[in-house]
Design goal:
GNAT_dom; transferase; Acyl_CoA_acyltransferase; acyltransferase activity, transferring groups other than amino-acyl groups; about 280 residues; Aminopeptidase; YpeA/RimI_acetyltransf
Length: about 280
């Protein structure tokens, strides 16, 4: 497949100060699940994708289930017996476990039941996809500690340090970031007096939707408003890029994170989960 376009790094300065009350949003029509799925797939690309009879198969050397799983894109449970051997072969050829990403929609839930009957088990807790509108006149200015780094190569070491993850997938993570073709913000938050950033996050605008990814804060500096500062800065950036909706993905049982995002005005739109061979 052709190489994806390089990302656009948006390192523009943001205005100072950060008043409270950023969770107040004007009620507008919520986006469809299909629209958020399209934006999410574009904003977090796999290194390899293949379409097969209503399935989108994604592979990225095993880094993140999102980019190493089969997604129903018009597939139905009734065709699963014919599709399953081809899907399993796709992942086996790449040395990956066959993994399905399934949504809380009627069609995917039927596939979920069919996979359960064929020995596929749920793995990990479900993720909640939360959304909020981005009206143009009510979000507070970005905090003064918020800044944008020039590109993925400058940003990724900060994310790795904050997550304390020296795993083997850093090169793959960088390749995914470099494959993003949409406007991208590589954000950090560096509180006054800090020698290094203590929070970071990624914003991508695709099809009018701002996706927030890889939000992280230093373990020693949690519950100090750093995650909120990252999100506020990215919401402002996304609005400036013309986004009308923001979305994010969070483990549904992560109560502290879910509560933070609710205070920022996000509400759950749907959930997704994974199944792998038991």
């Amino acid at each position: 497949m052709p190489s994806p376009a390089k990302p656009t790094s948006m390192a523009r300065a943001c205005p100072p100060a950060s008043p409270e009350g950023s969770g107040h949003v004007t009620r507008v029509g919520r986006p469809s699940i299909e629209a958020i799925e399209r934006a999410g797939l574009a904003s977090w690309p796999a290194l390899e994708e293949e379409r097969l009879d209503g399935w989108l198969l994604r592979a990225s050397q095993g880094y993140t289930r999102r980019t190493n799983s089969a997604n129903a894109a018009g597939a139905s449970a009734g065709h699963l017996d014919a599709d399953l051997p081809l899907i399993e072969r796709f992942f086996a050829q790449r040395g990956l476990p066959t993994t399905f990403r399934l949504l809380s929609t009627a069609g995917d839930e039927a596939i979920d039941r069919a996979l359960d009957q064929r020995g596929y088990r749920r793995c990990e807790d479900p993720c909640s996809v939360m959304v909020r509108p981005l009206p143009g006149d009510i979000h507070p200015p970005s905090p003064p500690s918020f800044a944008l780094l020039p590109d993925a190569k400058a940003w990724l070491p900060e994310f790795v340090r904050l997550k304390n993850d020296q795993g083997p997938h850093q090169r793959t993570h960088l390749a995914i970031l470099d494959a993003i073709a949409s406007p991208t913000a590589f954000a950090v938050v560096k509180p006054p007096g800090a020698l290094q950033p203590q929070g970071c996050g990624l914003g991508v605008v695709a099809e009018g939707h701002l996706g927030l990814f890889d939000i992280a804060t230093h373990p020693a500096h949690r519950r100090q408003g750093l995650g909120k500062a990252v999100c506020e800065g990215l919401l402002n950036w996304g609005r400036d890029q013309g986004a009308h909706t923001a979305y994010l993905q969070v483990v549904a049982d992560n109560r502290s994170a879910v509560e933070l995002y609710r205070r920022l005005g996000f509400e759950e739109l749907y959930r997704y989960w994974y199944r792998i061979r038991g």
